[in-house]
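worker-3 :: picked ATP-dependent DNA helicase RecG
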Amino acid sequence: MTTKRLPTTLQKMGLDTPLALALHLPARYEDETELYTVKEALTRGRSISVQTQGVVIRNQVLFRPRRQLLVTIEDETASLQLRFLNFYPSQQKQMAVGAHIRVRGEVREGFQGAEMVHPTVRSVVPDAALPTSLTPVYPASAGISQTVIRKAVKQALRDPGIQEHLAEFLPKPLMAALLPTQDWPPLQSAIAYLHEPPADADTQALLERTHPAWRRVQFEELLAQQISLKRAHRIRRERRAPSFQVLTAANNGVGIEAGLIKVLPFKLTGAQQRVWSEISDDVSQTFPMNRLLQGDVGSGKTVIAALAAARAMDHSYQAAIMAPTEILAEQHYLKMKEWFEPLGVNVAWLSGSLKAKEKKLTQAAIESGQAQLIIGTHALIQESVSFAKLGLAVIDEQHRFGVKQRLEITQRVGSELFYCHQLMMTATPIPRTLAMTYYADLDVSVIDELPPGRKPIATKVVKASRRDEVISGLHSWLGKGLQAYWVCPLIEESEALQLQTAMESFEQLTHALPNFKVGLVHGRLKSEEKAAVMAAFKANEIQLLVATTVIEVGVDVPNAALMVIEHAERFGYAQIHQLRGRVGRGSADSVCILMYAEPLSLAAKERLQTLRETSDGFVIAERDLSLRGPGELLGAKQSGDAMLRFVDLQRDAWLIELAQQAADRLLADHLDLVERHLERWLGSRAEFLKA
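worker-3 :: tokens ->
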């Protein structure tokens, strides 16, 4: 089957070869192997989907309370009503009076008796044969029918070359040693089974993806991913990088690093000292560092980045710190200037909002090497930026950058002679299962201790109906000389969400708190305006800051010890965890109020409950992983490529270690087979896993 003969819609989904189609496995199945009379369906179909058939005896379009199509079918045992709230003229025609149709769906009690709402419908002759296997339902993009995908998959599985693509190329003794059980079928059999399971298949195991056929596919996919990551790890160790040793009296004596340690107004915590020792060891190697630094909000990651930058500059190399938002990048810039300028370091600032003239001057300073420490947003990885001698790249809140962006900075800073060291930082802890699978090429450090004086934050969950009480409490809070944040999810009115907006809240709070200055900051303000509001808040000229999530990361105002998050049910785990970390930075007891609107979904209720009970970032990260999956936590969704398609990292965690052991064995003894395995499973996606 050639690419040309496949519909363009399938090619856009990446289903452009027989192998891609063979590996496009069903999301679920429908059982169309059994047919019930209408009378049986009325009894059996109250909680599960059932299939029945009959002749259409009525077909009418009603316009009240809304436009809908009502169709009635009957057989010799009973009649059944079908209701369609969205329908096309072609469907009306298909179900014309006198037509014989087969329908599948759940039966529920409607206003006029038992009915099926939006069942699947097929025109059939009365004695049409039933399928002998479960019907696969495939993941699909809008506008692509299941019929088109099923036809293409069947054609792909009959392709002469597919046997070679799915062949067992690992030697049998090795397979016996690698696979944890003999019950798992060969790969080709597993894939054929998953596309067309027999009628007596264990449907539950298929749906939960615990069936031996699924296990074989999951193991193969994990194996490819682990091989790719471990190989990237080996390749990195073969690359050259500048070695940044600690300066001693014998080699120039005191440098920027020693100077920084002297001017810091605090001592490093034990956890910071441990982490700095690990990074110090990394940058002294002759291959590039690739380390992830995890630390909860306020644990002191910035000073570690500063020490690493100082070490690079001590060896006459440049260092760059990149952050996802201008507010966070600017926060880093101001802090680095405060620490480094007294030591004679030239600290440069580069962001998209700089005027053209300033941008050119900064770019020239970077290219000449005059700028030693460069802080900025993703503007740092644009084509127009050329570093003179970059030795260290620090990427803050790394999951906020797409995979391609992280990959780009790695490739841009490299040259034929050396690659720069790379340090990624995040306040969103990476669950262990995620670290094992997606960060096999990363060394991970954790700051698991808050600096002295940081107090725990009390979190309260409050109904939106008690808004006036919250504002009253806010009045007495500000009266003590303390400051507060009021966070809103939207800037403008949205009919769909009907949320209180930042603008509305700002006006309401300004009116309710006439004795205090209320400020407003949101993403649509110009950078200068945003900076002016933030500076006024920091100087306590503004007591209450109404904001959207632009303050999620990087804002440090010790006197702000209260945060109210409006419509907290609309925020994710990580967002609230990050926002909450903006308070608790001073000596006052800190409080975070999560205000929610009813009704609450079960997921939102569980999320708010978890956030009230714990401030442990790792517990929150595990819950977040189970809710959202790995793609969003990694920034992988921004790459446009699926990551692990068939593995659930929590349910299938036990498979990860097996895949790691198998990957080590193949890389050690069977390098000739590694390429074939990677090509089958990853193709061009192998590049993303190195990012």
